[in-house]
Amino acid sequence: LEEITPKPVQDTGNILKQGYLEKRSREHSFFGSEWQKRWCVLNRRTFYYYANEKSKQPKGTFSIEHCSARLAFHLRKDSRKRCCFELICPGKRTYEFTAPSPAEAEDWVDQIQFLLKDLSSLTIPYDEEDEEEPYNDVDSSDSANTASHNATLNQDEPNIEMEEDDIYEVLPGKQPNKQ
Predict the structure, then answer these.
(1) Which of 18, 84, 143, 177 is a plausible cystine mate for 41, CB 3.0–4.6 Å?
(2) CA dist 24 to 32, 34, 96, Å?
(3) Considering only CA atoms, which of 24, 120, 29, 27 is closest in space to residue 76?
(4) Closest CA to 68 of 23, 127, 119, 19
């Protein structure tokens, strides 16, 4: 029997973007903070980062719901400074990343901003709908109006007499029984 290995990114839902990024560690060494290569995965609400794309357990995870994302060229002084972006999570921390290219950094920021806009626009109308009166199909005034409306419609239509057999579909090659 073949051994079935678990997928590297389990239960993360629909993956919208994934790839290697360098993440700045929180711990500062003698040389300053270090950049570590991480496999990053973004789904509709959560950002995950793993040691590599085959890892089964994330090194970290955080909800993007109240965060903001922006390009952050000030994070590095070397040739990769235009590849940097940050995720600012109020009350938690700021996550700092370096993408493989400036275009990739922009794409990560765009995807996250799109999700944040989507999350905020989804919650507003949903809350408004909850506040509306529930639909009631047994309301007496509506049913009276509907009944009189139907009666009016029926008066305008000519009476059509149907034979009993007319309600059945005629299959090819079969003739309906006429009496």
Answers:
(1) 18
(2) 10, 6, 6
(3) 24
(4) 119
